[in-house]
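WARN no homologs supplied; continuing
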Amino acid sequence: MKEIHLTDFSPTKIADAAAWIERQCYHCGLSDTDSYEVRTCVVEAINNSIEHAYGGGAGSINVATWCSKGYLNIEVLDFGSAPGRDFYQQDEPAAPDAERGRGWLIIGAWMNKAKFMRIGEKNVVRLAKRIPI
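OK structure emitted
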């Protein structure tokens, strides 16, 4: 398992985290397209933590990756406030011209597995992308 820890949510640090995720994708053998999708989804999960768990303020986010049983697994964990009950349970897509509200739908479409859990005082997003044979 490889991990990064974010406490600085500046655009530069988010870009560094995205580059780190992309390296993990290549290490596990994902294609350029799959790597792009994973990177986009992980950055979305990080941004959701920043906005919804920490309200744009200070906090910490841990991102872990590991390859196992044909999947690249990713966990994005924060210790902020719990988002609203329906935040990760959207059934209806956002309007095509909406500026917000499509992130979790994209995550669900691009990842093979995607789950949000509140475990104790932690918000945990677990994602998995199938590694091609």
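Residues 2-130 form a domain with the Heat Shock Protein 90 fold (CATH 3.30.565.10).
OK
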